[in-house]
Structure formats: C-alpha cells, structure tokens
C-alpha cells in the first residue's frame, strides 16, 4: 500500500486522481474489475481481513472501500483516507484504488451515503461482510441493497446452526448471491475427495463407509477462535453428498460425533498442531467394512497430503497430493468471483442447521 | 455406464485429470526442456495434476533418471526463476523418470511397455497414457507404429483405460504428405486419440476470441461485410531462425506459421457461431471457414501473394545477419522468411471483404495481432477526414484488446482525434495469462480436444496453400524479394496493399 492520505469525504476522488497523476511517471496502471466494499469492526481480525483483500487484488484488481467501525457506544466520528494498493509481486504494473473509512458511534449510519458516489459504474459490487451476519445490522441491510454479491465468513459465527439458518434464509429471500470464505477454505479437501473417488470401484466403497474421523488443529489464534468450523463444513458436505440422514450428535471434550441413520458416523477431533494454521484439517480417516482410506497432511510441509488406501487383503503404496500454496488462493477467488451459489453449499447448510454445536 | 461421483459438482468442481502416465518422446530436445517440462512443473505448483501422475522422458542420449532430473532442475529453475521452489521440485522430481531408448527400434518400446506396467502397479496410474511426440516430424509414423505394435496404444473403445498421442506441427509438408501421414496414423489410432497441438490455440487471448465475438452482442452485429472494410492478421517475430537452419530450409514461413497458426487465427475470426461450445461444433465451423476461402487463381499467385527473405539489418540496434548467412542455410537459398497473402472468404458474412495475412521473421518486433478495420463513417456529416474505427486483438505480447474511435478535441473546434480504449489481460487480471502448453497438456489429459487441430482443419489449410507452394517451387527465383532485417517486410508487400488503397498497420 502506498502512503495513505486523510481527506475530507468530498475530496476522495480528487485525491485519488492526484495520487494517480504522481504515479504517472512510474508506469502503474489503474485497474478495477469490480468494487469491493469491506466491512469489519476494528479488532484483531482487521489485519487478517486486509490480508484477504490483498489476496483478492493479487488475482482480480478492484477498487476497495474498506470500512472499519468502532462500537456504536463510542463517540461519533468519520475519518476517510485514500491510498493505492499494489500486488506484492514487484513486477506487477497494476495498482488499485483504496478508500478507507473509519467510523464510530452514530456515524455508522452515514456510511452508505459515503460509499455511493465511489461505486464504479457498470461494474459489480461485492460486499465482504467480515462480521457475524446473524447479528442485525442496519448498515448491512443498506449495503446489501447495492451489492451483487455478499461474501461472509462463518469463522465469525458463534453459533453455526444459527449462521446456516441465516444464510439459507438470505438465499431464499434476497436476490443476491452469497459466498462463504470458510466454504472456500474447504475446497482443497473437497476437490481431493472428488479426485480420489473417480473410478467405479472406489465409488462403490463409498456405500460401505462406517465411520469417518476428521482431525483438525484446535489451536486458537488472535483472529481465529472457532477452530472447528471448517471441519463442521467438511463433515456436513461429505454426509450430504453421500445422502446420509442426520440422527443425532454427541459432544465430548474435544470430540464431536455426528451419527447418521445408516449407522455411519463422522467424528471431529480437535488437537493442537503447531505451526499449522488454526482450524486446518489435518487428516481424514475413512473406514469401510473392509478398508481404510487415510488422507494425512504432512505437518512439516502442510501443502502435502499423503494418501493411503489400505484394503483387507493388500495395501497400496501411498501417494502424495499437493495443495495450492495459498489458503487464500484460487479456491477463495473461485468462491468470490465466479457466479452462482453452489448447490453443494446450500445442501451443506441444510445439514449444519441440524444439531447444536458449541463453537 | 460410469457411476456418478457424488463429490463432483458440475461447473464448480475443479477438473483434475485422471491418473495417467505422460511419456515424452524426444525428451532432451528444446521443446521438451523449454516448454513441456516447465509447463508440467507449473501445473504441479497450481495443484492441477492428478496425485497419481508420472512423467517418463524417452530419449536416446545416455542418461539416468537421476542425471535427467538434475539437468531439468537447473533448466526449470532458470526458466521459472521467482516461482521455483525446492519443495515443489522435490515433489515433481519424484514423478519424473528417464527411459533411454531409440525411436526406431522395437526394443525401446518393449522395455517401455514393461516399465509402464511397473509404474501402473506402483503408482496406480490406471494404465492411462499420453504419448507426446516432441520429435522431428519424420519420426511420427514410426513412433506411433511401434507404440501400437508393442501394446502401448489401446483401442479407442476400451472403456477401462485410454491412450492419447500428442503430435506437434508440422502435419505434413503439403496436402499430399499431410494425407499420407493421416492415413498412416489412422491405421493405429482413432481420430479421437490424436491431439494435434497448435500452441496458439492454448493462448488465453485466442480462446478469448470466441467469448469476445459471441458473448458481446454489439460486436457480433457488426462482424460482417456491411460494416467491415478489411481484416489484417499479423504474426511477426523479431528473431531469425536461430539454430533451426536445417529445419527451416525445408519449411519456409508458409509452412512454419501460415499453414497452422495463421489459419487458426483466421478461422476463429471468421467463423459462424457454433451450435454449441462442444469441440465437434467449434471445429466444424472452423473447417467451414477454411473450405469457404476462395482458391487461388494464377493471377492471385502473382498479384495477391508476396514472398520475401530477410537480408542483414538491425534489430533493437544490434546488427544481424542475412538469412543466407545463418548457420545450416544454403548460400543460394530461396526459402521464404516472409509471406503475405490476400484472401477472400466466399460466404454470406464475408463476401467481398479482403483478409490480409502477413507473417515474417526479423521484423521490427514480436507481435501477433488481428485487426478488424471498419468501414469509413458516412461522408458529408463531418467535414474533416475521419479515421476508420479499428478493433485490434493483441494475441501477444501485451495480450488484450484495443479499440480506436474518433473523439472530439476539447474546446470549441469540431476537430476530431482518434483515441484508443484499451483492455490488457495483465492489468485487469493481475498477472500474465498461463502458458499455452499448461492449458493444452491439461486438456489432453482430460480428453478435451477442443483446443487441438482436427484432421479436417489440417487438410483444408493444406488444400488452400499447396498450390502456392507448387507455384513457388517452379518459380522461386523470380518471386522472392529481400527485405532489410528490422523493417516490416519487402516493398512488394506494401505495393500489394497500395493497389487496394490500403496500407499495413504500423505496429
């Protein structure tokens, strides 16, 4: 990011133009495919959200309007500043407009008015709502009206059942597409499972699954504390894809077990795995009547997944699969940018609405 | 019937190819080391390769798997610089093996087959095979025959496993040899198993042509003879023939560039909207264009086709040799390093619209572009002369699309100025588009031949161009004009345009 200049809201565009004029000599190109409106409270997650924004502009340049809000009890204030964000790769010649809005107290309600003049004409508007969507927010109600797509993060949710219900309701009542960052974060394992069960022989084994164990890193960080949410998503996705009917769930210490009517179960086991990122899925162990299939992340090289097929009468030599480097890479971009809401996602939400799990 | 994978979501799931082995013949050559292997490495980094995937490098040089890996590591490290990673290289090198054998001896294929069976057993590659023939074209028939005779190629209707063969251009030297090659290959392969690579089709910008034309109604409605004055397609290279003298002497620019890359660009520019986005329908429409091109008459061969050869000159300030002085080139060579053609497409959409095509080496810069020059605006409304609108599709470099329009100059006068609206891939999407070979390799493994050239396309283009080659063969010394390296080609090329009251775009 270039130097940030505090300006009066009426001078935002003028200042952006003057920054661009200064940049004219160093051959930067102003690029925007859409307007990205970001809302977050000023807390320990703000920096993490900025990283997500950075990863978005690495792939798809956009105009960023970043709203950081303090609690409504604080004094009223609005501070606006402008800067340019550039991709981290030095050889890139693009730069994106960045408008920062710091707002406190009752001034929150002015935010939609601040934003409207700066939405890029004819281009989509994506709203990244980095707070819990289950909490009522007038600002959210206003901002979603101008958005083509809303991006949420179930990581912010304290109650996944409620979250799933809210999202489902949103999909039903609003004509806006919705994407979930946490759903995007599970894409690598979903794609891997898709790839592993391509042949008829392997697909047949899915019918015989008796239990699945998903281990995840339950070590919290400053911006991630709901460590089991990715695992909850993954288990719900697996169960819905296999057409399992939910029966009940048991929660004991660090283990949650979902039981299904076909007597199959999926257990989520939380353990600390330093230095893996918080909530990372570490392993999946699938047991059928006769076989065991293990997907195990290498904790020294967390992109590398060792896959073993252990049959009743023989074992296959393990193979290795490699995830794309960045956890906020193409899977995130696919989820954010490409149109349509995944049917798999909607069905996963249906299952997540069942049972009550503490997050 | 294949069972449905419940984990797959149509249109959303990232398509990763099935487990397979990729055998690269000619694995120590430039194509394999400079393009294919770095592309495979990049695919691994992007997570686009199946977990069960092995590469077997087949060549006659004395090497081991270890020594080959070591060489390729340095090679890929040099090429990919910032994106090279030791971890990724470790993963990649575990998938890379070397098989020393000759291309023309059965023994090599027998041992290859045994080796591949062992690979299947150990790495669960499901017996699926891709054979990439990055060899000189003369080896295509023999390699395919020997693969077949040694059980390395399966029947197309085998539902339990598949085998595919990728071959590089040139596909024959003229219509006769192209048909002979095709006839020979079809003894051993079904057409659906043959993947003829034209790497231009793997370029994002070339693929974008279809999207651009058919996903934007404003362009489709003016994409015809009512609105378009003429079309110029340019494939220019600043470099000479490098160390390819021996090869280029037999080819010339018409065979090397025009018969394949240029014809593909022409077909995509001029084709009708296909019935669907399937490979079959897209190819069908491309062939229809090629078959609609008016055959060359004798008068065309004299007036509407230009042939040139570069002489010494300057490229980016550096003095360069004449073609005849290049290594492995005959001092009396009449091989063309530049060619320009004027063609017409006889169909409802294009009747009467000339297409000017030019390709050359040692031109001032490297650029490939399709320019649609629209008809002049109506006379009389504005007194000043107006520039024709131009839509320029830049295939490489600076991939993107530019539109030249007329705008009023500021202040009181009604004076007009042409301005350019510009879209650049790199700027808007944050990075350069992926390498063409990455996309094509992946598509072949996925069994998608949309971006590969069909037999019909190859034969149709040869049918059009072979008379030119025959004519040149008989009259070569009379009709080749030299041009200085670093200029835009021989004078007769400009004269060809001038006769039509047109001029080549200055790129």
Oligomer: heterodimer
Which bin fits the share of residues in helices of chain B? 25-40%
**Distance between the first and last residues' Cα of chain B:** 54 Å
What is the molecular shape of chain B? globular
- Measured as a percent range, the helix fraction of chain A is 25-40%
* Strands of chain B, total number: 17
Structure, explained:
The complex is a heterodimer of chains A (359) and B (507). Chain A has 359 residues and is an alpha/beta fold. Chain A is built from eleven helices and 17 strands. In chain A, strands 1, 2, 3, 4, 5, 6, 7, 8 and 9 form a nine-stranded mixed beta sheet that branches. In chain A, strands 11-12-13-10-14-15-16-17 form an eight-stranded mixed beta sheet, covered by helices on one side. Chain B has 507 residues and is of the alpha/beta class. Chain B is 36% helix and 21% strand. In chain B, the strands form three sheets. Chain B has a nine-stranded mixed beta sheet with strand order 16-15-14-13-7-12-11-8-17, sandwiched between helices. Chain B has a six-stranded parallel beta sheet with strand order 3-2-1-4-5-6, sandwiched between helices. The model of chain B has no long low-confidence stretch (mean pLDDT 89). Classes of the chains: A alpha/beta (359), B alpha/beta (507). The interface between A and B is large, with 51 and 37 residues.
Output the keywords.
heterodimer, A: 359 residues, alpha/beta, nine-stranded mixed sheet, 30% helix, 30% strand, elongated, B: 507 residues, six-stranded parallel sheet, 17 strands
Annotate the secondary structure layout.
The complex is a heterodimer of chains A (359) and B (507).
Chain A: E1 5-7, H1 12-23, E2 29-30, E3 35-41, H2 46-59, E4 63-69, E5 77-85, E6 94-104, H3 111-115, E7 125-129, H4 138-145, E8 149-152, H5 160-173, E9 177-180, H6 181-185, H7 187-196, H8 200-206, E10 209-217, H9 229-241, E11 246-252, E12 255-260, E13 265-271, E14 281-288, E15 292-297, E16 304-310, E17 319-322, H10 330-337, H11 343-352
Parallel strand pairs in A: 2-6, 3-4, 3-7, 4-6, 7-8, 8-9, 10-13
Antiparallel strand pairs in A: 1-5, 5-6, 10-14, 11-12, 12-13, 14-15, 15-16, 16-17
Chain B: E1 20-25, H1 30-45, E2 53-59, H2 65-80, H3 86-93, E3 96-100, H4 106-123, E4 129-133, H5 140-149, E5 163-168, H6 175-185, E6 194-197, H7 204-214, H8 217-220, E7 228-236, H9 245-270, H10 279-292, H11 298-303, E8 305-311, E9 313-315, E10 318-320, E11 338-344, E12 354-360, E13 367-374, E14 390-396, E15 400-408, E16 416-424, H12 425-428, H13 436-446, H14 455-475, E17 481-484, H15 491-499
Parallel strand pairs in B: 1-2, 1-4, 2-3, 4-5, 5-6, 7-12, 8-17
Antiparallel strand pairs in B: 7-13, 8-11, 9-10, 11-12, 13-14, 14-15, 15-16
Helix pairs in contact in B: 1-2, 1-13, 6-14, 9-10, 9-14, 10-14
């Amino acid at each position: 990011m270039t130097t940030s200049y505090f300006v009066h809201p009426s001078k935002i565009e003028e200042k952006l133009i003057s920054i661009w004029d200064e940049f004219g000599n160093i051959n930067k190109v102003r690029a925007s495919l859409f307007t990205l409106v970001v809302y977050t409270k000023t807390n320990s997650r703000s920096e993490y959200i900025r990283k997500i924004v950075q990863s978005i502009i690495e792939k798809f340049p956009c105009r960023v309007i970043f709203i950081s809000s303090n609690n409504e009890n604080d004094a009223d204030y609005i501070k606006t500043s402008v800067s340019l964000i550039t991709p981290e790769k030095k050889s890139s010649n693009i730069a994106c407009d960045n408008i920062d809005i710091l707002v406190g107290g009752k001034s929150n309600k002015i935010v939609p008015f601040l934003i409207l003049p700066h939405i890029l004409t004819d281009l989509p508007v994506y709203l990244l709502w980095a707070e819990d969507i289950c909490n009522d927010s007038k600002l959210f109600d206003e901002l979603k009206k101008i958005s083509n797509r809303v991006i949420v993060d179930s990581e912010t949710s304290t109650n996944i059942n409620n979250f799933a219900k809210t999202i489902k309701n949103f999909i039903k009542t609003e004509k806006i597409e919705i994407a979930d960052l946490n759903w995007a974060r599970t894409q690598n394992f979903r794609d891997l499972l898709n790839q592993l069960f391509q042949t008829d022989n392997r697909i047949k084994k899915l019918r015989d699954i008796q239990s699945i164990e998903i281990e995840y890193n339950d070590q919290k960080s400053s911006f991630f504390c709901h460590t089991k949410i990715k695992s909850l998503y993954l288990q719900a996705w697996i169960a819905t894809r296999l057409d399992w009917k939910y029966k009940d769930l048991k929660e004991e210490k660090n283990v949650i077990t979902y039981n299904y009517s076909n007597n199959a179960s999926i257990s989520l086991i939380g353990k600390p795995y330093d230095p893996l990122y918080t909530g990372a899925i570490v392993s999946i162990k699938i047991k059928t009547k006769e076989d065991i299939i293990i997907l195990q992340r290498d904790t020294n090289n967390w992109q590398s997944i060792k896959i073993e097929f252990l049959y009743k009468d023989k074992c296959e030599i393990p193979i290795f699969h490699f995830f794309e480097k960045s956890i906020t890479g193409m899977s995130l971009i696919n989820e954010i940018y490409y149109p349509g809401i995944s049917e798999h996602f909607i069905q996963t939400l249906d299952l997540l609405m069942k049972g009550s799990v503490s997050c | 019937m294949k069972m449905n994978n419940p984990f797959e979501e149509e249109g959303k799931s990232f398509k990763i190819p099935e487990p397979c082995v990729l055998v690269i013949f000619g694995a120590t050559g430039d194509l394999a080391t400079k393009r294919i292997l770095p592309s495979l490495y990049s695919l691994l980094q992007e997570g686009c390769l199946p977990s069960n995937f092995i590469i077997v490098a087949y060549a006659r040089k004395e090497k081991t798997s270890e020594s080959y890996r070591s060489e390729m590591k340095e090679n890929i490290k040099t090429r990919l610089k910032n994106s090279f990673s030791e971890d990724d290289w470790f993963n990649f090198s575990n998938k890379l093996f070397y098989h020393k054998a000759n291309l023309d001896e059965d023994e090599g294929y027998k041992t290859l087959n045994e080796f591949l069976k062992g690979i299947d057993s150990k790495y669960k590659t499901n017996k699926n095979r891709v054979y990439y023939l990055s060899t000189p074209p003369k080896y295509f028939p023999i390699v395919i025959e020997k693969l077949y005779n040694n059980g390395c190629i399966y029947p197309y209707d085998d539902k339990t496993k598949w085998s595919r063969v990728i071959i590089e251009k040139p596909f024959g030297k003229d219509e006769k040899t192209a048909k002979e090659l095709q006839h020979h290959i079809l003894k051993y392969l079904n057409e659906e198993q043959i993947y003829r690579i034209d790497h231009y089709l793997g370029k994002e910008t070339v693929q974008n042509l279809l999207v651009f034309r058919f996903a934007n109604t404003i362009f489709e409605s003016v994409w015809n003879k009512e609105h378009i004055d003429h079309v110029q397609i340019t494939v220019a290279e600043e470099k000479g023939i490098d160390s390819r003298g021996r090869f280029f002497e037999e080819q010339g620019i018409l065979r090397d560039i025009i018969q394949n890359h240029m014809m593909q660009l022409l077909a995509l520019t001029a084709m009708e909207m296909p019935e669907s986005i399937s490979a079959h329908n897209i190819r069908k429409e491309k062939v229809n264009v090629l078959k609609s091109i008016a055959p060359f008459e004798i008068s065309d061969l004299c007036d509407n086709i230009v042939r040139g050869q570069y002489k010494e000159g300057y490229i980016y300030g550096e003095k360069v040799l004449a073609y005849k002085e290049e290594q492995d080139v005959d001092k009396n060579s009449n091989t063309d390093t530049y060619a320009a053609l004027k063609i017409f497409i006889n169909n409802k959409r294009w009747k009467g619209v000339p297409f000017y095509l030019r390709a050359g080496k040692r031109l001032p810069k490297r650029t490939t572009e399709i320019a649609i020059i629209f008809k002049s605006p109506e006379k009389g409304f504005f007194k000043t002369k107006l520039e024709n609108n131009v839509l320029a599709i830049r295939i490489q470099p600076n991939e993107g699309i530019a539109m030249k329009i007329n705008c009023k100059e500021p202040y009181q006068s009604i004076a007009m100025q042409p301005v350019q609206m510009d879209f650049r891939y790199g700027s808007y999407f944050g990075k350069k588009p992926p390498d063409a070979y990455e996309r094509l390799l992946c598509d072949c493994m996925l069994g998608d031949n949309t971006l590969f050239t069909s037999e019909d396309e190859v034969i149709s283009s040869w049918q059009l161009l072979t008379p030119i080659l025959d004519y040149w063969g008989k009259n070569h010394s009379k009709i080749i004009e030299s041009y200085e390296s670093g200029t835009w080609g021989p004078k007769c090329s400009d004269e060809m345009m001038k006769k039509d009251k047109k001029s080549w775009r200055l790129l």
